[in-house]
Design goal:
The protein has 393 residues and is α+β, with helices and mostly antiparallel strands. It is built from twelve helices and seven strands.
C-alpha cells in the first residue's frame, strides 16, 4: 500500500506539527523523546498530565469513529500524526493500551451502555488500562490460561481468581481487561470470557518485576475473588474477542512504535558520526541494513492497515511481531558496538545506564514477551501457511 497525501492531509500535518510545537514546551519540554521502550519508568506522572493535554487538544483516539468520540481520522491522517508526533519528540504514551487495544475492542464488541461507560475516560486521558493475558504457564500459549471467572448468581457478578504476569504498567492502570476461563472444565480456545476489571480493589495485588535495567515496567497481578465490572460479549466469546484485539495491536499503533524505533536509530547514527564509528565499513553496512529493514516494517504495516477485515489476524499481521522483535534486538546490539568499549562502563551507581545501554538490555525481552519468536514461527507456519500443527508428543 503506497500512501500519497492530499492537500487536505498536508494541512492536517501542519495542524499537528503546530500544535505540538506550541504545547510540547515549558513543563512538558523535559518529556521530549522520553518514555519509550526501556524508558517507560521515566516521567510517569508528568506523562499522565501530558496525556490529558493531548486530550484537551483532541489528539487522543483520533482514529476512532466520531460516534465513539474520536476524530474519524483517515489512515493517511493517522500516519501523519504518528510521523509528526515522533518528529517532535512526543513522549511515550501512557494511554496507548486503552486507546489502541481496550477502546477499539469495546467499540467493536461492547454494548452501547458499555461504550458510554468506558470510552470517555480513555478519550479524556484520565483512565489508563493494562492487559491481563499472559500467565506463568500461559505466556506465549494464550489458550492455556488458567485464571478462572466464577459467576455468583446471588449477586450477578463474575469473580476473578488467578495470576497474570508481564502486565505492562499495571501499577498505574485504573482498569484491566482480563482473559479468564468462565466454563468449568474447558480447555484450549473454548470456555473463555473477556472481562473488564477495576484495579482499585483490595482483591487485586500488583507486584513489580525488577528487570536487568533496574526498572519495573512489568508486573505480576494476583486476583483473589476480584469483582469484574463487566464482560464483553457472551461467556465463551473470549478467544474470538482476544484475537480481534491482537489485530488492533498490530494495527495503526504500530506506526507510533516504528517512529520510536526511528528515533532510536537516529540516536545510534548520530553517535557513530560523533565517535568516528561511522568510518567502520561493517558498522555502516549494519546501519544501512537497519534503515532498510525499518522501512520494510513500515510498508508491511501499511499493508496490514489496508485490510478490509480487522476482526481477524491477516497474514501480514502474523509476521509483524517476529519481525519487529528481531529487528529491535539487533538494534540494541548495534548500539553497543557503536558505543565501543564505553558500552561496558557505568557512569555511576548500579543501573545508572545510558539510553543506549538501557535499550540493549531491554530489547533482550522483545523476542520473549507478547509471544516468543519460536511461538510466532509456529503461528506463521500453522495459520499463515497452513502447515501441520506442531506435535505435542
Amino acid at each position: 500500500m503506497k500512501l500519497t497525501f492530499s492537500v487536505e492531509d498536508e494541512l492536517f500535518r501542519s495542524e499537528v506539527a503546530n500544535w505540538l510545537s506550541e504545547h510540547l514546551v515549558g513543563e512538558f519540554e523535559p518529556l521530549r523523546f522520553r518514555g519509550g521502550p526501556g524508558d517507560e519508568h521515566m516521567f510517569t506522572e508528568e506523562r499522565k498530565v501530558w496525556e490529558q493535554e493531548l486530550a484537551k487538544g483532541g489528539w487522543t483516539c483520533i482514529g476512532w469513529a466520531q460516534q465513539d468520540g474520536g476524530r474519524g481520522a483517515t489512515i493517511e491522517q493517522q500516519v501523519i500524526f504518528h510521523e509528526e508526533y515522533a518528529r517532535a519528540g512526543g513522549p511515550g504514551r501512557v494511554g496507548h493500551i486503552g486507546e489502541g487495544l481496550a477502546g477499539p475492542t469495546i467499540a467493536m464488541f461492547g454494548s452501547e451502555e458499555q461504550k458510554k461507560r468506558y470510552l470517555p475516560g480513555i478519550i479524556a486521558g484520565k483512565e489508563l488500562w493494562c492487559q491481563g493475558y499472559s500467565e506463568p504457564d500461559a505466556g506465549s500459549d494464550l489458550a492455556a490460561v488458567k485464571t478462572k471467572a466464577i459467576y455468583n448468581e446471588s449477586t450477578g457478578q463474575w469473580l476473578i481468581n488467578g495470576q497474570k504476569v508481564w502486565t505492562s504498567l499495571a501499577m498505574d492502570a485504573n482498569w484491566c481487561f482480563v482473559l479468564a476461563r468462565c466454563e468449568p472444565g474447558s480447555i484450549g480456545h473454548g470456555g473463555l470470557g473477556f472481562f473488564l476489571v477495576n484495579m482499585a480493589q483490595a482483591e487485586i495485588q500488583v507486584r513489580p518485576i525488577k528487570q536487568l535495567t533496574g526498572t519495573s515496567e512489568f508486573n505480576e497481578v494476583f486476583f483473589d475473588n476480584a469483582i469484574a465490572a463487566d464482560i464483553i460479549g457472551e461467556p465463551g466469546d473470549g478467544w474470538r474477542i482476544a484475537m480481534a484485539l491482537l489485530g488492533f495491536e498490530r494495527g495503526v499503533s504500530t506506526l507510533g512504535q516504528q517512529m520510536l524505533f526511528q528515533n532510536e536509530l537516529n540516536e545510534v547514527i548520530e553517535l557513530a558520526k560523533t565517535n568516528g564509528m561511522a568510518n567502520n565499513s561493517d558498522i555502516r553496512q549494519r546501519i544501512a541494513r537497519a534503515h532498510r529493514e525499518l522501512s520494510i516494517m513500515r510498508y508491511n504495516s501499511l499493508r496490514m492497515l489496508s485490510a478490509k477485515d480487522n476482526s481477524r489476524l491477516q497474514r501480514e499481521a502474523l509476521v509483524y511481531k517476529l519481525y519487529w522483535a528481531s529487528w529491535h534486538r539487533d538494534l540494541g546490539k548495534l548500539a553497543m558496538d557503536v558505543m565501543g568499549p564505553e558500552s561496558e562502563i557505568l557512569a555511576g551507581q548500579t543501573y545508572d545506564l545510558t539510553r543506549l545501554q538501557s535499550l540493549f538490555l531491554f530489547t533482550r525481552s522483545d523476542t520473549i514477551y507478547g509471544g516468543t519468536n519460536e511461538i510466532q514461527r509456529n503461528i506463521i507456519a500453522e495459520r499463515g501457511l497452513g502447515m501441520p500443527k506442531e506435535s505435542k508428543c
